UniProtKB/TrEMBL annotation:
Its EC number is 1.6.5.-, 1.7.1.17. Belongs to the azoreductase type 1 family. This is FMN dependent NADH:quinone oxidoreductase. Also exhibits azoreductase activity. Catalyzes the reductive cleavage of the azo bond in aromatic azo compounds to the corresponding amines. Quinone reductase that provides resistance to thiol-specific stress caused by electrophilic quinones. Keywords: Flavoprotein, FMN, NAD, Oxidoreductase. GO terms for molecular function: electron transfer activity; FMN binding; oxidoreductase activity, acting on NAD(P)H as acceptor; oxidoreductase activity, acting on NAD(P)H, quinone or similar compound as acceptor. Homodimer. Binds 1 FMN per subunit. The gene is azoR. InterPro entries: Flavodoxin_fold, Flavoprotein-like_sf, FMN-dep_NADH:Q_OxRdtase_AzoR1, NADH:quinone_OxRdtase_FMN_depd. It comes from Microbulbifer thermotolerans. It is an enzyme of class 1 (oxidoreductase). SUPFAM superfamilies: Flavoproteins. Residues 7-199 form the Flavodoxin-like fold domain. Its cofactor is FMN.
C-alpha cells in the first residue's frame, strides 16, 4: 500500500491578503509544516483575493434542488461548492488566519462557511441533532485582533462551533491581540504567537 502524501489547506481571510498578520501567522505555520513534511502539499484559499459569493436564495435553492432537476446555472453553483468542500476533505490539516472585524469573523469567511455547510454532504440531521461528516482533520486557527478581547470571546466560540458542526473537533486556537494598541503590544503578541507555532507544528 502506498503512503498518501499529507495535505495542508491554508485559508486566509484578511482584507490585506498576504500582508495581514493573521495571514502571516498562518503562512508561518504552513512553512514550518512543509519543512517537517517535505513531500506534503500546501493549498492556499485566499478569501481576501477571491471572495466567495454571499449566499442568496438562488444559490441556496441550487443546493436543495435534486441533482437531476438542476439547471446549468444551478449545477455551476453546486460544482463551485463541491470544489471548496473537496479542498477540505482532501486535507489532513486546516490552517485558518482570521482577523477580528467588528467583533466577528470577516464576512468573506461567513460566506465560505455557508458554501461548505451542506446537509447530506458535510453534515447530516439526526434525531440526536446534527452530525458532522468531515472526520479525522486537525485545525489550527490564528485569530488576530486590534484590541484585547480574550480567548472566551464569541468570535472564537463561533469558529470552534462551526468546525465542530462539520465534525472537526481537534482544534487549536492561537490569539494575537492588542495589535492596534501599541507597537510594543503588537510585537509581543506576534512574538508569542510565533513561538506557539513551533510547538503546534
Amino acid at each position: 500500500m502506498t503512503h498518501r502524501e499529507q495535505k495542508l489547506l491554508k485559508i486566509q481571510t484578511s482584507l490585506f491578503q498576504n500582508d495581514g498578520v493573521s495571514s502571516q501567522l498562518a503562512d508561518e505555520f504552513a512553512r514550518q509544516w512543509q519543512a517537517q513534511n517535505p513531500q506534503g502539499q500546501v493549498i492556499t484559499r485566499d478569501l481576501g483575493a477571491e471572495p466567495v459569493p454571499h449566499l442568496d436564495l438562488a444559490r441556496f435553492q441550487s443546493f436543495i434542488t435534486p441533482e437531476e432537476e438542476r439547471t446549468a446555472e444551478q449545477k455551476a453553483v453546486v460544482n463551485y461548492s463541491d470544489q471548496l468542500i473537496a479542498e477540505i476533505t482532501s486535507a489532513d490539516v486546516l490552517v485558518l488566519g482570521i482577523p477580528m472585524y467588528n467583533f466577528s469573523v470577516p464576512s468573506t469567511l461567513r460566506a465560505y462557511f455557508d458554501h461548505v455547510a451542506r446537509a447530506g454532504v458535510t453534515f447530516r440531521y439526526t434525531p440526536e441533532g446534527p452530525q458532522g461528516l468531515i472526520k479525522g482533520k486537525r485545525a489550527v486557527v490564528f485569530i488576530t485582533r486590534g484590541g484585547f478581547h480574550g480567548e472566551d470571546h464569541s468570535q472564537t466560540a463561533y469558529v470552534r462551533q462551526f468546525l465542530g458542526f462539520l465534525g472537526i473537533t481537534d482544534v487549536e486556537v492561537v490569539h494575537a491581540e492588542g495589535l492596534s494598541v501599541s507597537q510594543d503590544a503588537k510585537e509581543n503578541s506576534v512574538k508569542t504567537a510565533r513561538e506557539k507555532i513551533a510547538e503546534l507544528v
